[in-house]
Design brief:
The chain has one domain: Jelly Rolls. The chain contains 5 helices and 13 strands. Strands 1, 2, 3, 4, 5, 6, 7, 8, 9, 10, 11, 12 and 13 form a 13-stranded antiparallel sheet that branches. The longest helix is centred in the first third of the chain and has 15 residues. It starts with a helix and ends in an 8-residue tail after the last strand.
Length: about 270
């Protein structure tokens, strides 16, 4: 009987006030809402397609902490390699790696993704873009964290337009950069090209704390097509999330995968 008394007697509960990275929001929703309201009038008119560049989206300290959680490139058990070439053997993307599985991410990164998919942040996106009923991607298909090493490139392209599992319509891309001390000479700017692929209309440096949000379509051509020239011990780090709506838009036509583009006069 003493055995059973000991086994079933109440056990003391562990303390519940241990500080964790989850105790405070990582996003300042009030200032972000104000930022979205200020940027909204220019969002739809931006060229070559609707977009906004939001500096100070996260604090410098937060950017540093998130970058520190990126696994080392040598941790091949975590990083996925989607590099590949076209039919002529020319690179479509090179030295680019990503992790979509949130179980492989650090706790602060997991927390940030949670907040970027929350109802509060979806309202921030609606305030900025005017797009209602946005759906975040719990599967992070093609998203999560991205890392580009020396020599990395991403050919100009428009992204796939339907979620492969859920078949909802892709509407927004969010790219958050985490690169402290990034040098202009290293390249790696995000390029936005016009719908006819005649010229690059805008270049956006991937500096820490900068967030780029843009509407996606079959002609929202973007990428960083020239190899980056950063030192061997430096990588270009970013967080990417994509947002959807249902039902699909007739304007985008049938479902398509990534639409790779050649630059005029370049050896793409």
């Amino acid at each position: 009987m003493a055995f059973f008394d000991a086994w079933f007697s109440p056990k003391p509960m562990p303390p519940t006030t241990v500080p964790t990275p989850w105790s405070e929001p990582m996003l300042a929703f009030g200032p972000l809402t104000a930022m979205a309201q200020a940027a909204a009038p220019e969002y739809a008119r931006a060229q070559p397609f609707a977009h906004a560049v939001l500096d100070g989206f996260i604090s410098p300290k937060t950017a540093t902490q998130l970058a520190a959680e990126f696994p080392a490139r040598t941790d091949t058990a975590k990083w996925l390699d989607y590099n590949g070439t076209d039919a002529q053997g020319k690179p479509l993307q090179h030295n680019k790696y990503h992790i979509s599985d949130e179980d492989r991410l650090g706790p602060l990164t997991q927390r940030l993704l949670y907040e970027l998919k929350s109802a509060r942040f979806l309202q921030v996106l609606t305030t900025l873009t005017g797009i209602e009923h946005l759906i975040p991607d719990a599967l992070n298909h093609g998203g999560g964290i991205h890392m580009n090493c020396r020599g990395a490139l991403l050919k100009i392209h428009a992204d796939f337009n339907r979620h492969p599992q859920w078949h909802v319509d892709r509407r927004l891309n969010l790219l958050l950069y985490l690169n402290e001390g990034w040098q202009t000479a290293w390249g790696g700017d995000l390029e936005l090209w016009d719908a006819s692929m005649q010229s690059c209309i805008k270049k956006i440096a991937p500096v820490a704390g900068r967030c780029v949000i843009f509407s996606t379509s079959s002609t929202s051509f973007h990428g960083h097509p020239d190899p980056i020239d950063c030192p061997e011990d430096v990588t270009r780090k970013s967080i990417a999330l994509y947002y959807y709506t249902n039902p699909e838009r007739a304007t985008d036509g049938p479902a398509h995968s990534t639409l790779w583009q050649a630059r005029p006069g370049a050896a793409d």
